[in-house]
Amino acid sequence: MSGCPGSRTIDFSENTAQEGSETGKRPSQLRQWPIQMHLVSPQAPYFQGKDILLAADCTAFSLGDFHKDYLKGKSIAIACPKLDSDQEIYTEKIKALIDDAKINTLTVMIMQVPCCFGLAQIAKEGAEKATRKIPIKQVVVGLEGNILSEEWI
Amino acid sequence: MENVLNKEIKQIIESCPEVGRILDEYGIGCVPCSVGSCLLKDVVGIHNLDPEKEATLMYRIEKAIYPDRNVAKPVIDPTKKSAPKKITYSPPVKKLVDEHVLIKRLLALIPTIADYIETSMKVDKDLVLRCVDFIRTYADKYHHMKEEDILFKYADEKAEIIQVMYKDHDTGRGYIRQVVEGAEKGNKAQIKQNMLAYQELLTQHIKKEDEILYPWIDRQLSTAQVGEMFRRCNEADASVGEELPKKYEKFIVDLEEKFLQEVTK
């Protein structure tokens, strides 16, 4: 196995031993549109004073209970630090979310692959540029949808 | 075992002192507690032991209370060593832990200061009152008020551990009133005795907060509550101005310079 861990081919389709319930329907916890970082505006009403989840694109597909455990009660912006262009705009938007939208907290959710830590870096840079200070949490998701770490940074 | 879990810890230790010794081995210091009305289940839960450790502790307590009972011994994998739990704090709680550091620097100097007062010809009233000012303004008004007005409101205020913290704050205020009275009367023994009592009380109090109470409250906070508490603590800090912590940090630095020199003389 070699090459970039972010794009390396791994098949875990044989891994069926995970516990979980198939019964019951879970409603979506999404309360806004748009969600992509280039499309959202820090002035949007759904960001004002809220707890924000800045999620790497792949996280929602990896985590089985993304909506229930992490999106519920939060507003969201999504981005890919590996493939998205013009990421300096993201830094400015984070700054505006903190200073202008006066968000309460920022939770950055990333995958365990090294390139994904770029999103946490963008969040830190935006927060450093901002005048207001807020708590920032980093959640790292494993490739098989497990939470590897969850800590305030 | 269920009814024992819902019993007050002091009652359990009184009827079976071995339980106190077992708890002590696990770093759970209930024996010297002056109140002791925590329920056993809360005592164990609040310390957040790893599951294997908790299972072994509960097994040993049950065997101590009911030696004749056939209790299943938890199976522990000897190859699986549990790493010591690292305590992490949310940003507003971390700020309170950081404030403890400056208070602990004064506490570390208190025995030297108390000896200095005892051996001086005349009571250095100005020095005593400046220490009292640090304790009343920085430790009590600036720090303890954030605990009482903000942090403790996020926990069950009726919980035994919170009541013990309130009681410690009040007891500390009582010692400091005695120190001031001693300084006014020029009573060296009164100053020394109460300064040392304050040091002993606050040292244990801060240890309990850093290692047990704060992590326990932190575990119960939602992300939104962390953000709210961070904002409220910042507003409380802003209301006293940024010069206040700087002023008291300088006081401690000056005090350390004076008394560390005394010690090395």
Automatic annotation (TrEMBL), chain A:
Q: Superkingdom of the source? A: Bacteria
| Regions of compositional bias (Polar residues) in chain numbering | 10-21
Q: For the region Disordered, what residue ranges are annotated?
A: 1-28
Q: What name has this protein been given in UniProt? A: 4Fe-4S ferredoxin
Species whose genome carries this gene: Candidatus Brocadia carolinensis
Q: What does the organism's lineage look like at the top? A: Bacteria, Pseudomonadati, Planctomycetota, Candidatus Brocadiia, Candidatus Brocadiales
UniProtKB/TrEMBL annotation, chain B:
Which Pfam families has this protein been placed in? Answer: Hemerythrin
User: What does UniProt give as the signal peptide span?
Assistant: none
Residues covered by the Hemerythrin-like domain:
93-217
GO CC, alphabetical: plasma membrane
Q: Which superkingdom heads the taxonomic lineage of this protein's source? A: Bacteria
Q: Which PANTHER family match?
A: BLL2471 PROTEIN-RELATED, HEMERYTHRIN-LIKE DOMAIN-CONTAINING PROTEIN
Its protein name is Hemerythrin-like domain-containing protein
Source species of the chain: Candidatus Brocadia carolinensis
